[in-house]
Amino acid sequence: MSDLGDLYQELLLDHYRRPRNHGRIADADGVADGNNPLCGDRVRVFVRVRDDIVQDVKFEGGGCAISTASASIMTEAVKGQTIGDARRLFKRFHKLVTEGIDDPRGPAHGTGERAGDASAEAPPLGKLEVFAGVGEYPARVKCATLAWHTLEAALEHRTETVTTE
Ligand code: ZN
């Protein structure tokens, strides 16, 4: 493995041991639970949205190193983003962990989006790139995406527990 791989592993373990934005938001306007029974990961994601901006996001729970680190890095990545950008970032991240491809436009979905429409591009992945190798382990993809699916549910005010099965 390259030095870059070591660096990524260090970043991941750091977020696992000291998760950022861990806790709850008292005046959250979106809360959702996520469950990944294959691994035993459980997260609860809280969001506070103002003027279409993810003003604050926190999580409780966790599980394996990948799910906990992913939740922690997710909160850093989406805080301050518009809801649209947070969703686009999830798509971009999802494509990275499932296909190993970093495409700013995420998976193709329908023909409605025109090529070259800069507004449809996701924000840069940044630290989320540490999960690039996860796709080689399909069971781990669920660990890496659990917090994101749960965030999406919180933003959509869905109340049923999100499950990766
Ligand atoms: Zn896991």
Note down, in words, how this protein is organized.
- With 165 residues, the protein is an alpha+beta fold.
- The chain has a single domain (3-163), classed as Alpha-Beta Complex (Sufe protein. Chain: A).
- The chain is built from four helices and four strands.
- Strands 3-2-1-4 form a four-stranded mixed β-sheet, covered by helices on one side.
- Helix 1 packs across helix 2, helix 2 packs parallel to helix 4 and helix 3 (83-99) runs antiparallel to helix 4 (138-155).
- Mean pLDDT is 89; it is low at 110-118.
Which features would summarize this protein structure in a list?
alpha+beta; Sufe protein. Chain: A; 165 residues; binds zinc ion
Set out the fold topology:
Elements: H1 3-17, E1 30-36, E2 41-50, E3 53-62, H2 65-78, H3 83-99, H4 138-155, E4 162-163
Parallel strand pairs: 1-4
Antiparallel strand pairs: 1-2, 2-3
Helix pairs in contact: 1-2, 2-4, 3-4
pLDDT averaged over residues: 89
In angstroms, what separates the terminal alpha carbons?
A: 31 Å
CATH architecture: Alpha-Beta Complex
The helix fraction, in percent, is 25-40%
Element-by-element helix/strand order: HEEEHHHE
How many helices? The count is 4
- What does the main sheet amount to? 4 strands, mixed
CATH topology: Sufe protein. Chain: A
Radius of gyration: 15 Å
Bound molecules: zinc ion
Basic shape: globular
- In the sheet with the most strands, the strands line up as 3-2-1-4
